[in-house]
Amino acid sequence: MHRPRRLPLLLLVLIGLLPAVARAQLPPPRFPSPHARPRAGVGGGVGGGYEFETRYFRQRLDHFSFSGEEEFFQQRYLVGRAGGWAGPGGPIFFYCGNEGDIAWFAANSGLVWEAAPRFAALVVFAEHRYYGESMPFGSKEKAYNSSRSMAYLTAEQALADYTVLLTDLKRNLSSESSPVVLFGGSYGGMLAAWMRLKYPHIAVGALASSAPILQFEDIVPDTIFYDLVSNDFKRESLSCFQTIKDSWKELDEQGNGQDGLLKLSKTFHLCQTLNTTGALSDWLSSAYSYLAMVDYPMPSEFLMPLPANPIKEVCRNIDKQPERSSILERIYAGVNIYYNYTGTVDCFDLDDDPHGMGGWDWQACTEMVMPMSSSEGLSMFPPDEFDYALYADDCVKNFGVRPRPRWISTEFGGHNISSVLEKFGSNIIFFNGLLDPWSGGGVLKNISDSVVAIVAPLGAHHIDLRPATKQDPDWLVSLRESELEIISGWLSDHYRARGGALFQRATNDDSAAS
Amino acid sequence: MHRPRRLPLLLLVLIGLLPAVARAQLPPPRFPSPHARPRAGVGGGVGGGYEFETRYFRQRLDHFSFSGEEEFFQQRYLVGRAGGWAGPGGPIFFYCGNEGDIAWFAANSGLVWEAAPRFAALVVFAEHRYYGESMPFGSKEKAYNSSRSMAYLTAEQALADYTVLLTDLKRNLSSESSPVVLFGGSYGGMLAAWMRLKYPHIAVGALASSAPILQFEDIVPDTIFYDLVSNDFKRESLSCFQTIKDSWKELDEQGNGQDGLLKLSKTFHLCQTLNTTGALSDWLSSAYSYLAMVDYPMPSEFLMPLPANPIKEVCRNIDKQPERSSILERIYAGVNIYYNYTGTVDCFDLDDDPHGMGGWDWQACTEMVMPMSSSEGLSMFPPDEFDYALYADDCVKNFGVRPRPRWISTEFGGHNISSVLEKFGSNIIFFNGLLDPWSGGGVLKNISDSVVAIVAPLGAHHIDLRPATKQDPDWLVSLRESELEIISGWLSDHYRARGGALFQRATNDDSAAS
């Protein structure tokens, strides 16, 4: 096991605090998140071609106490143009915002927009507190000022936000009887599933896409994430996998040699000379993890502009280098696909973290403690073990908070989830793509008739939610159709119980992506 | 409608803040709660003859935020002598403490103790935060100091307390797989039902006795409570009902006459001369409401020492007075049964509120807003309408907090509860006795196969939970048996799913009360 070393605060914040292993060799696995400001302006806009209005709701900062000193903040939410909505009593499709700007998630969750007309549903995307424009205390600077100001950045508070917002929205629309279907991907998918469980009176069902609700404590093996990333590379090319696996030692050795850091900086076209090889390792590992998440069979610009099947391309580049190429030259050729597919980058700045989210670092240091290790055998990453004590100490040092590593499973469950939910709860779809390393913490088996798992062996991170494209493979078209059939059943049940079909349902043909 | 008048703060606190009508003619309906300190000492004791150990758990004050300034308090809980427990993996019967000293609820919830041996279950009674000995900040004085210190007195925090306590307790007992059955009566019953819904992974089922989870907003008519109290008197004697109904005008007229307050004070044997007739009206109304709650068919000392069928006795006393008796003399004779059944009281002190609970006043001013009106037609109480604006203003004035009248139904549901729970949730018994005025806010119909209502037409407030007595009518013995059969089914399901019967089950005969 590598001895964890302590990084300076800045770097620690930049690379996130997730697993203690990050301070050894491994970067923190994070969920994908927006790397750019939203394309939509205030008051309305078009995200990914979807038309919506931007609204703000006066939201309570702390739902669970009554200090008498009430704090509120403006929570942003996007509402699709109401033209296609059935009107009062008609369905509402509600996306549970993740750890980032909501416009980005709206642009990347085409399924919600594209399915809405078929059900004459109103589309709502709600932004998560402390992200995007939904900042308590008036600004990000003030919201992120201290542990006192960040105290209310929790999943429970966010779920209560969505619940209060929906309740108010329905009342204002005179639409209290509307069935609400929750959507969410990644952390947003966890929120959608948890919200269906905690607030069944608010929503008739939830599509929880790529939601690793079991990635806590010892519910799943802590090596599963990196094993799955590694497997994505191994399935494309054993030599590619092996080159990456061999590269860490090579990196260390070169870094420790004469002018090693300078040489490494040149090999990898870095803008500035490295201070440690660790920063480079993290940069590489991070690319591999993200590549596994977005290993889609069509070109995408979700995180970075990428070709279809990006891991195949990365491995092809690693493998196809001239025979005399060194391991590190191959590695450089590989990650170029991720960091520079457009070929416009002259040099790379490792400090430039386009996916930086201080908010998620906080969440990882409070509730979202997901232990991550790298196994000696199956992983192409350097072996490392999760060291909780070190992890917790760093949270205290950097944020002034101590994590509660058992809180999530206490609050939301997780252990024996099948037996708990077999007789409790209903109407949840857990989607997972098996290429996605987060699928290791997902629900992969049907739990009951209505708490079901849809698994795509060739799918990556919430591919089902992505906008439809001409290149979508048949299995993807078909699984989206399965999801919508299930949702249709929830809505039919709802209206049947109320004695009538209040919503107009178009034919399936109308639901095709435009 | 009577114009609400403002009472001085002291009186307001004494009579509680529940309905605005309290400030007109009606006292606040409250749940029964302990009027005396527990009989059990620290470290162990016998409450109602049940043997337990007193323990304390270091509980987190705020489960839902992470300010970095962690506050903890000592939460008291009682654990039955473990001799009868099946051991690790065996059932745990967990009582969700109400708004009062837990030893009192333990002494008055005999069913839990008496049923435990039959299932070889471990008995745990957990005290609710801010009550009894479970005081944040080290003392009641400090805990009740201000809205800042009381901020965390909420149902959600209490549910999280129970969840965290149970999770820790099971771990310490190496008994993580133990099935937990929740019990609770009155507010404790609401907590038991909500806990089953919010934390299904913690408990396999809940017996929610006399839990008015629908007594919020407009879910049930706001006149139902006083109508039910009135009906309890009407069914015993129409003339008794009419005498009480006529008495309010009589009270007002006498109070307004020459030396009226002095005369009233003499008629009612008050220790001190009245300042207003309102205080006397409240004292009378309060007695009627409590009488309806504890209208048990056997003698009890739950709130006051009372005979069997106390309303029958009250009405008999009212009706049997000599014909020349005035209305108020009859009324005095009636309430004497409630306030002075033992005949030891020389004079009555209206300020002496044996059921005072500042904590519940706070809860009523934050989450627990239960609108209460008195109807012109069916009620024997003076007509009055719930005035929310006034209610809220008084909460601000007295506690520095503004209520959130819609929060409970937003957080826990309530509207259309049948359709929500028909397809969601399982394993809850809602017991209600129809003599109990709180049954108006209860679940009185089966919702699904496993979310069921047990209704006792002749039962009062959580009579099922009371210790068994020789005088118990057959219907009571039989409905307790039905409840235990259902609970037995939950436990069997649990063990069957785990492939074995780990707990010893005695024969039914063993379960008879000793």
The biggest sheet of chain A, with number of strands, parallel, antiparallel or mixed sense and barrel status, is: 9 strands, mixed
Query: Which assembly state applies to the chains in this document?
Result: homodimer
| Order of strands, widest sheet of chain A | 1-2-3-5-4-6-7-8-9
Give the radius of gyration of chain A.
23 Å
Q: Into which percent range does the helicity of residues of chain A fall? A: 25-40%
Q: What's the end-to-end separation of chain A, in Å?
A: 52 Å
Please tell me the overall pLDDT of chain A: 89
Specify the number of helices of chain A.
18
Quick one: overall form of chain A? globular
Number of strands of chain A: 9
Largest interface summary:
A-B, 59 and 59 residues
Counting helices, strands and paired strands, the structural category of chain A is alpha/beta
Low-confidence stretches of chain A: 1-25, 35-46, 502-514
β-sheet strand percentage of chain A: 5-15%
Which sequence of SSEs, written as H and E, runs from N to C of chain A? Answer: HEEEEHHEHHHEHEHHHHHHHHHHEEH
Record keyword descriptors for this entry:
9 strands; 514 residues; 18 helices; disordered N terminus; nine-stranded mixed sheet; disordered C terminus; homodimer; alpha/beta
Walk me through what this model shows.
The structure is a homodimer of 514-residue chains. Chain A is an alpha/beta fold and 514 residues long. Helices cover 38% and strands 11% of the residues of chain A. The first copy, chain A, has 18 helices and nine strands. In chain A, strand 1 and strand 2 (50-60) form a beta hairpin. Chain A is globular. Chains A, B: InterPro entries: AB_hydrolase_fold (IPR029058), Peptidase_S28 (IPR008758), Ser_carbopepase_S28_SKS (IPR042269). Chains A, B: This is Lysosomal Pro-X carboxypeptidase.
